[in-house]
Amino acid sequence: MTRTRKAQPLTSFFSALALIATPFISTLSFADEAVPEHGIAMHGEPKYPPGFSHFDYVNADAPKGGTLKMAVVANGFDSFNPFDIRGVAAAGISTYLYDTLLESSDDEPFSAYGLIAESLETPDDRSYVVFNLREHARFHDGQPITANDVKFSFDTLISKGHPFFRNYYADVSTVTVESPRRVRFDFSDTSNRELPLILGQMPILPAHYWADREFGKNGLNPPVGSGPYRISDFEAGRSITYERVKDYWAQDLGARKGRFNFDQITYDYYTDDTVALEAFKAGSFDFRLESSAKNWATAYTGERFDNGTIIKEAIEHHRPSGMQGFAFNTRRKVFSDPLVREALAYGFDFQWANKNLFFDQYTRTDSYFENSDLASSGLPTGRELEILEPYRNQLPEDVFTREYHPPSTEGRQGLRQNLKTAMELLTAAGYEIRDGKMVHGQTGEPLAFEILLFQKSFERVVLPFKNNLGRLGIDVTVRLVDSNQYIQRLREFDFDMITQVFGQSDSPGNEQREYWHSSTVDAKGSRNYMGVNDPVIDELVSMVIQAPDREELVFRTRALDRVLLHHYYVIPHWHLRSDRVAYWNRLQRPVNTPKNGIDLDNWWAKP
Questions:
Q1: DSSP-derived secondary structure for 90-109
Q2: Chain segment 313-365, per-residue pLDDT in tens
Q3: Which residues of 242-279 are buried (b: 16+ CB within 10 A; e: fewer)?
Q4: Mapping DSSP to helix (H, G, I), strand (E, B) and coil, where does residue 514 land?
Q5: Distance CA 377, CA 514 (A)
Q6: For the residues of 262-314, what is the DSSP string, one character each?
């Protein structure tokens, strides 16, 4: 299901200055006191006014009913807890079972509106946030959602949940329950403007349900939530069905109107994508987001496509596509030298792959914030140069002198010239050829590594890359494992190289710590897969998080982008500016597609 949100969970706000018995101080306190607001934007003002009826990109009159059948290509699930690092959670749990304090819109860079929270209060410096909860907000068992539940959720997630939460909410200093429907978060870093919004994305858990249960060991016991669906049926590891909560407490709110329209949503698990594709065409499930260019070009044909029974569409989006690429684990000695990482990039022939494997559907990626105004280009000038200049002696000279582009094989010399360049870089890194093998000149250690995969279809991309490097005497092993083993190895950083996607939103912030900050380099389960551990990148991440306005956010993000690129942590792949989808004509979608792309939670079944 295509959903582009800020990388999950978020942070909050609120703090009132004590009134002191002097007219001057009293006036200051009154001026700085926050007032309740219906929504909040990262920068500027939110688009939708108080009491708005629905988001512009939904059909407010969409009928409720019908069933949505979906497929998941994975080796099953063993947990209903998506917030714990242990186990593999069933698809859809966090989206359908748990409501959040705020709900983000999909047609703004980053704005959020009251969901469980009726309003929020935060001062201009965003040094705190207060959430005022709706009186009628309820869990599925009828219990009211209270400020104690909010505090319990925060405490539980940072102490027992995935390590992501501890990094995401690192700047929260205290949480105070001020009344049953009022909770305040104070912040240690008053320049982290994103905290109120990302706290608003925090899933709210029922404290009473978890009072006599162990958070990480509830297994496949369906939990109590507050969202638009509850678990109605499941077959362990094979399928799960959600049923719409008919008396859902938030169904008439502007942030929910026209959404979550299916009476039932079922996910069936398949261990092979080829089998899943054939099952889709046979009618076993309703919707498919296609990731394979070959499938898109060759497999979606036949009478049902010709007569409109199955609809095939490439739906344009305007969201940042982020970075997909071969990611180096720099914790491994073999990848500790940036020269080696740069050299290996010359072994990947994107132009050949795009023509022979992808039917020329893709564009090469050359930014971590591709397809957005956040992407760097050219050489740093103006404000970008000002940001980077203090770190000149700590950065590769190329950051200032050479525009980054991934190696290309266009031209007469093509791959031959690229491999020659790779050889020159490896020689500069101390490597040489002995008996046909690339070895380090001093240690005699061979240059060899493993590429870890879980999708067999990706072998056709990896094997030509392996063969190209083999011409340089580099020994590459390709290992295919099941999805569960792959997840566990990623959590333990037990790999040399992987293919990975680093998704981005249009408003980068606290999640950048999870990707690139040194504090996450040894945190098992973090998304710092490459082992990025650099003081300049740490400071640039902090600057992105603390950006005071949109213009400065763009400059700071571009600066971060340049530094990441010139450290050669990945070999960039490609991107697509549309979502390739196919669906049975019993589904209908809104006329308007937001900039973030399609979201099936806005679709409905034909009556």
A1: PTTHHHHH--BSEEE-SSSS
A2: 999 999 999 999 999 999 999 999 999 999 999 999 999 999 999 999 999 99
A3: bbbbeebbbeebbbbbbbbbbebbbbbbbeebeebbeb
A4: helix
A5: 24
A6: -SEEEEEEES-HHHHHHHHHTTSSSEEE---HHHHHHTS-SHHHHTTSEEEEE
Find tokens 């003081």 and name the residue.
535
Residue 32: pLDDT band with limits 50, 70, 90:
low
Q: What is the model's pLDDT at position 77?
A: 95
Q: Is 221 exposed, middle or buried (0-12, 13-18, 19+ CB in 10 A)?
A: exposed
**Within 10 Å of residue 284's Cβ, how many Cβ atoms?**
14
Nearest CA-CA partner of 422 in 468, 355, 367, 365? 468
pLDDT > 60? residue 273 = yes
Residue 311 phi, psi dihedral angles, 5° rounding: -105, 130
Per-residue pLDDT at 1 exceeds 60: no
Task: Name residue 540's amino acid.
Answer: L
Q: What is the pLDDT of residues 401-430, one digit of tens each?
A: 999 999 999 987 889 999 999 999 999 999
Cβ neighbours of 449 (radius 10 Å): 20
Sheet holding 102-104, edge to edge: 39-41, 111-114, 102-104
Q: Which residues, in sequence order, are bridge partners of residue 313?
A: 581
Which residues, 6 or more positions from 393, have their beta carbon under 8 angstroms from its beta carbon?
none
Alpha carbon distances (Å) from 397 to 86, 382, 428, 532, 563: 42, 18, 16, 19, 10
- The alpha carbon of 403 is separated from its chain's Cα centroid by a whole number of angstroms, namely 27
Handedness of CA 185, 187, 190, 196 (dihedral sign): negative
Yes or no: say if 430 and 333 are a contact pair by the CB < 8 Å rule: no
Our CA angle for 360, 568, 320, nearest 5°, is 55
Q: What is the pLDDT of residues 303-319, one digit of tens each?
A: 999 999 999 999 999 99
The per-residue DSSP string of 542-563 comes to HHHHT-SSHHHHHHHHHHHHHH
Rounded Cα gap, residues 506 and 594, in angstroms:
13
Which pLDDT value is given to residue 425? 98
Model confidence at 14, in pLDDT bands (50, 70, 90)?
Answer: very low
Q: Which of 316, 259, 320, 314 is nearest to 600 (CA)?
A: 259
Helix, strand and coil in the chain, % to nearest 5: 30, 20, 50
pLDDT of residue 457: 87
Q: What's at 360, amino acid-wise?
A: D
Tell me how far the alpha carbon of residue 49 is from its chain's centroid: 28
SS3 for 340?
helix
